[in-house]
Structure formats: C-alpha cells, structure tokens
Amino acid sequence: MAEAALELLERGRRVRLLSMVKAEGYAPHPMEDVSGLDINTGNADWFLANISCQSACPAYTDVARYIAHIATENYDASYRINLEDNVFPGMLGRICARPCEPACRRGRVDKPIAICWLKRVGSDYRTNKNLPSRPPVTRPQKIAVVGSGPAGLAAARDLAKMGYSCVVYEALAIPGGMFTCGIPAWRLPRDITKYEIDDYFAAMGVEIKLGVEVGKDVTVRQLLDEYSAVLLAAGTQVPQLMQIPGEKEGGEGKVKGFYFGLPFMERINLGEEVTIGNKVVVIGGGFTAMDCSRSSLRMGAEKVYVVYRRSRHEMSVYEEEAAEAANEGIEFLFLVTQTEILYDAEGNITGMKCIRNRLGDPDASGRRAPVPIPGTEFILDVDTVIAATGQNADPTIAEKELGVALNRNRIKIDRNTYATNVAGLFAAGDYTEGARNVISAIADGHKAAISIDQWLTGVQPEPVVLRSKFSISPQWEDVSDYHRRVSAEIASTEYQRVGQPQTLGSAAVQVTAMDAFGPTALKQKHYEPISIWSKNTTNRRLEVGDDYDATDRQEMSQIPIEERGSLVREVEQGFSRLEAFQEAKRCLQCQLNIFLDGNMCILCNACIDICPPRVLLMVPFDAINTINGDPEHRILDTALGWRDGAAMLIDESLCIRCGLCIEVCPVNCITMQHFEPELVPVAELQAQATTAARPTAGAVMQPAMAGRMNP
Fold it and tell me: What is the C-alpha to C-alpha distance for residues 5 and 252, in angstroms, rounded to an integer?
C-alpha cells in the first residue's frame, strides 16, 4: 500500500482528504514511509473537475446526466438536457470534436465512453418532435447578430429566451454557417440541420435574413443605428495562404484544379458545379481536410492523398475519422510539406513539389515543429490541389471609420464581456479566436449573450462563484439514521465548498439547463431531475450488478465502403437502443463522490483492502505537507495535536464509483453523494457569511464529516 501512496505523490494525482480520524489508541495501519503529500478538501471547482468530461467541454454539457437518462431509455430528457447546453444535439451528436472523450475517466480504465454518439441517441430516439413555443418578447431592445453559425445562433437563442427580439444576418443563401456549408451531408444529414436550425429558430421567433453580406449590403454602422446591440459572429471566411510558388498563379477561380478547403466544401454543399481531376491532394490535418478528401472520392477521384507536415499524432481529428478516411482509400503522407504547385503551359496542374520533414522542438502552439530534411524533395503526381490549411476572420466587416480596435488582424474584445471598444458592438466565436471546434463557438455564444444582456440592462457585472450542492445516494431503500445525519451534515457545511470568483458568463455555462441568463441566471432551473439511474447507482452496482466495469465500448455501425459513393448518404448509422444502453451503463457517473464520517471510522483498513483500483489511502498526519496549499491549515494543525490517528485520503482520478467501500465498512461510515454546482453572487455569499459568522466567498474549509473532529 505504501507503493500506492508514493505513486500518487510521483504522478501528482488529485488527492482529496476524506477525514482526519482520531484514534483512542495506536493506529497500526497508516503508511509510515510516505511524506510530502499535497491534498485538497474539495470545493465546487474541485468536484466539478472530477467530472472530467463536463470540465473538458467548452459548453460544460452535463454529460453524466444525459447519459443516465439514456440508460433509462428516457431519450426525450436526454435530448432536452443537450438542447440547453449545446443547442444542437442532433448535429453535435454527429460532428462534435469530442474534447470530452479524451478527458473521460473511463478511458483510464479501458476505453472512453462514446459520449458524442450517445448525444446522438437522444436525438434519434426521442418521441417528442414538437418545436418549442415562442418565448414572449419582454425587452424593448432589438439585437442584430452577424453570422448564422454556431456562435451566432447560440447567442440568438439565449437572447430570445431572455425576451429580446433578435435578427440574424447571413451572407449565404442558407443558414448554419459551418453546419450546412462547411460539413458534408454524408456526415450531417440536412433533415437534421433543417429541424435544429431552420425550424427551431423560426419557432423561437429568431429571424434569419439570408443573402445579406454585412460590410457590403449593409454596414455595421447602419446596424448599430437600427439595433440596440450588434454581435459579430461571422466565423472565419478568409482562406489562410500557404505562401508557396504556384499558389497565387493558380489561385482559386483562376486555374482549374486548385481550391481552398472551406470554399470547396461550401460550393459542394450549395449545389454548385465543382470539377476535380483523377488524382487529388488535400493539404492539411484537420476536419476540413478529411471532409475534402473523402468528398473527392465520392465525386469520382481515382486517387486521393492527404499531405500533412507533422505526424499522425499531431492531427486534430479524432482517430475514428482518420481511420475511416484510410479505410475508404485515402493515402496519408505524414511529415511532408508542400513547396510548390506545378502547372503546364495551358495552366493545368501537373504535380506538387514536396519535401519530407522531421519533428523538431515545440512551436508556439505547443506542437513539435516540422523541420525540412535536405535532399528529400519529391514531386507528387496530382492534377487537383485542395489547400485545407486553415481560415482567418475578415476584420474589415466592421468598417474602419468605426474605429474598432484590432489585435493581430482580429477584432479586439474584452475577454470577460466580449465587448469591443465601440459601444454596443460585441464579437465572439471563431471570428475573434480563429478557427476552432463547433462546441467552443457555442460556448462563446452563451457567454456573449449574457454580457449583451447585462450591458443592455445596465447591470454592473459582478463576480459569482460555484457552490457545491449534494444529494444523498444511499445503498439501501430504507435510509438509515446515519445517512440522514450525513445528508444534514453536508447541507450544513455547503457554504464552505465554494469555488473561485469568476465572471457570470464563464460560471453560467458550468451549470446545467439554465432557465434564463443574464441577471436571472442566478435562478437556474434544471429541466430534468437526477435520473433514477444515478440515484440507484450504488444499490445497482452492489446488490443487483450491471457489469458496467466489464462491458466493452460499443462501436458505431457504418454503411459498407462500397456503398459510400454518395455525397448525401450518411455513413454512420447510429446506435441501436440496446447498444445505447450498453454504452450508457459504462459511464462511471463521476458526479457521485465518496464521503467518510471520521467520527465513526475505526481505521480497520477494510475499505482500502477491498478497493479494486487502490484509490483509498490511510496515511499518518505528518505525511501531509499541505492542505489546499496551506502547510498550516487548521485541520492539519488540529490533527497533529492528536496522539494517534490517520488521514483517510482518496485518489479522485481513478475511483470507479463501485461502492465496495460502502458495502464492506463494518461501522457504516462511508456514503456516496451526488454533486452539482449552483451559482451564487460573491456579494450574497459574503452577506451570508457575515450573518452566520462564517468564511467569505472563496474560502475553502474542512470537508464535510470532518468539521466536528476536535481533540
């Protein structure tokens, strides 16, 4: 067991103090050969970070909650949760970049939960297809949003719910931005985009004006004169140049065979004529490069290469996407950089000069920079070149006479409020941050809507905190007196477990299913309660058993390779109901947390011995270096004054929520509690603390169940 504690220290894992336990006599079990442990008592930020999938999602989608509803086949509830958090459940369930999955703690056991595919399940199997009721317009101000992509639509939806009248301006003939113009229909069927964009936003009362190019057909100044506030969310529409010979000579539209990646997909999705040759090379390692290469095959190309200057490990696409491209016949040329596009006398592409690379030191992005290897030049025999090397925003949309401040050729904004230096003008999404993933743009839209509301209502932005809320998750239906006392103890000390102050916009997206935003965001409402699946987790795993820890990850069925010649037929077929259930039950339900009553613990070591992943630890008091970063924390000072005892710790990173420690405890001193955060203004918390003579916001005191442990 000493090795386990040493491993915790060496790896710097997340170690939480369950309780300091005072012993009446000598405690024989503490690990005597460890020292210098830095531990935490756990505040709201800590417990939220335990739900690593949710913390990794820019929009803080309540993953565990919607997966639990899928396990009970309540697909409508699962869909509604996603609708509040990420706005486009059916679309995100197909094309999300999945930052949650690499963070999934189940991946430390075997394979991550198929979080993205489960999101799609709620959309595929929901029974209530009805459109939302139009929210009443209760605010006098009108708001213009430039761009109908993820950020713009997310902000417009939230603002409409707040009672504002919103008008979205879109330069193209169809709404959706990247959803409908950048992503092919064989990945994202257009019946899904029609419902979640056209039909949904029409029902919400959000007007989308198509074919209106802001900066050309109407100026930003005109919008500011007509509307109370304007949000620029135009995305990135300017291709990033490769800066190689032959690029300008064969610039898009000048010579047949050269395209930039996003405009290439845009023309396909808008039904315009696009001609490609027999041998195509796509330059880039992102999602657009995959879409361009796989679409080229569907358009009749005989050979398609993807050239990427780094290794497979540095590509931004997830493994399944690259694997399917390879299965379809795409040939990847890694550690290769394009150096020149070659043409014949008639201006037709005859090839592309390349050079091989090795990886050097990390560049500004943190990735290892490609370094050309002299003498490795070669010519790739192709007749079509598609440069999917990135996109940039067009800052000229906001005309110069407005005096909009720029930062490295992008609109400069206040990162907390999304406001520009021009009163009433806001900007968000990829337009200010550069090309990223869809879910990040949606998160920006949420936050920008809150800031616009605060500005229009004259509310001075004030810091807020997240506070822990816990509910009991007992093993037994007949809750014992002990469990009632645990619940009461935790409730009485909730004021202690508050996170660090932050802006309302940043904090609001971390709370599930907000009923409204802006000043009313503090009165959040959960559209769906805790699922019975979550409530019964301990009982089910201990007494019934569901083999959650032994069930393999379910894989998505796809149409055969030979049937993938269509630009509109969806490749991924979705989960069956049985597959969805099997995958949903694999979720560890990380919002559940172990608590221990030190007043009852007898230091018998039973919980430590039975723990499968060895995450429970018992150490001497002097093995602890700091608590919450404080070497003189009062909990530690108190315990060091005891004659005998031990600190009970848990490694949060590997706990699988099996509940065996609860079952084996002979004195019934361990319980499991369901966590979720709530928003509280710092001023309100300080007032509560003053009234009750308790700590102010941001203070992190001793953990629940340790508060009464005095010598």
Answer: 60
Q: Give residue 182's identity as a one-letter amino acid code.
A: G
Residue 187 vs residues 167, 196, 291, 566: alpha-carbon distances, Å? 29, 15, 9, 11
Considering Cα of 85, then 525, then 697, then 487, what sign does the dihedral take? Answer: negative
Angle between helices 261-269 and 287-298 (to 10 degrees): 50
Single out the residue of 226, 235, 281, 196 nearest to residue 433, CA to CA: 235
Q: Could you tell me which residues come within 8 angstroms of residue 531 by beta carbon, excluding any fewer than 6 positions away?
A: 65, 68, 69, 71, 72, 74, 77
Q: What is the pTM of this model?
A: 0.91
* For range 322-338, the mean pLDDT: 96
Instruction: Look at the domain 241-389 and name its fold.
Output: FAD/NAD(P)-binding domain (3.50.50)
Which amino acid would we find at residue 92?
L
Per DSSP, which regions of 492-584 are E strands? Answer: none
**168 has which bridge partners?**
145, 208
Q: At 183, is the secondary structure helix, strand, or coil?
A: coil
Question: Distances from the Cα of 163 to the Cαs of 158, 166, 263, 303, 518, in angstroms?
Answer: 9, 9, 36, 53, 11
Look at residue 3 in the predicted model and tell me its pLDDT: 62
The domain segmentation of the chain, as residue ranges, is: 2-49+463-533+597-653+682-691, 55-131+547-584, 241-389
User: Alpha-carbon distance 423 to 599, whole Å?
Assistant: 58
